[in-house]
Amino acid sequence: MTLALVSAAAFGTSGPFGKALFEGGWSPAAAVTARIGIAALVLAIPTALELRGRWHLLRKNLGVVLIYGMTGVAGCQLFYFVAVDHLSVGVALLLEYLSPVLLVGYAWATTRRRPSPLTIAGAGCALAGLALVLNVFGDVSLNLIGVAFGLAAAFCSAAYFVVASHSHDESLPPLALAGAGMAAGVLPLLAVGALGLLPMDASTEDVPFAGHQVSFLVPLLGIAVLAAAFAYVTGVLSARMLGSRLASFLALSEVLFAVLFAWWFLGELPLPIQLSGGALIIIGVLLVRASDDTAAA
Question: Which H helix or E strand runs over 111?
């Protein structure tokens, strides 16, 4: 659980880092592509060392790597950014974070075992808390295209947790899965940029961050090394220890960390309704953790 929270906190830093790049003239697609590409480079040598003498594991798990890269790395972010073009940020995030509920339904369908009342209650509390943290009730605008892409991001997020938590005797080690998945995930992002489907604007000018003008490398390396490479490796480790369902509910704490980091780095104070939502998310996670069917996920 500690690893899952550390991973969520690392993912939560992407907001302040990303906002600094956006204000410096970077487009979201360019920032995401650079983020994943640099993370792939950072993890390349550790991945090679991890697989030394065991390269057959990569061949046997090539399909898993491709699914991981296409969904959890590239799909989530691409579909989310398309959703944001048609919806408010809060609603788009709320749709993406439906993945824990999708995983509860997936476990129910595959095991034919109905979720316990605690799991259902925990899912309800967590989603209600998420809606409050994202403050989606203030200005909600729905667009069918945006909703469709938001739900696609949710399915990609659910697939990420399923793949990350899956383990057997010849599974890729967590670090190798994250590293190879980064390499697989950056390819569709580069293709999207080459085809001109999304703007790929970047700049080497200094950017505003934490009240100062800093080199663009500061937020770029932050979003790539901390919010991608480190976050994904710890995410895979925690998912294998906890299972996909509990790991996905703990991942909801990313929005809490994002709010706290926005407060710390950007001076954006959380609203009382957001703090109340955070308490509901914590209650929801505790209920899921206490349920008797968590191990079955």
Answer: helix 99-111
Q: Which amino acid is at 104?
A: V
80: burial class by Cβ within 10 Å (0-12, 13-18, 19+)? buried
Pair 104, 119: CB distance under 8 Å: yes
Q: Which secondary structure element, helix H or strand E, spans residue 22, and what is its range?
A: helix 14-23
Tens of pLDDT along 68-102? 999 989 888 888 877 876 776 667 777 888 888 88
pTM: 0.82
Containing structural domain, residue 176: 2-296
CA atoms of 50 and 187, how far apart (whole Å) = 22
- Please name the residues in contact with 59: beta carbons below 8 A apart, sequence gap of 6 or more: none
Task: Give the span between the Cα atoms of 240 and 132, in whole angstroms.
Answer: 30
Distance CA 229, CA 38 (A): 9
> Residue 188: what residue type?
P
The 3-state DSSP composition of the chain as helix, strand, coil percent (nearest 5) reads 75, 0, 20
d(CA 44, CA 32): 18
Q: Tokens 């605690």 correspond to what residue?
A: 118
Cα separation, 290 vs 21, whole angstroms: 41
Nearest CA to 200 out of 81, 39, 67 is that of 81
Residue type, 6: V
What residues contact residue 35 under an 8 Å CB cut-off, 6+ apart? 14, 220, 223, 224, 227, 228
Count of domains observed in the chain? 1
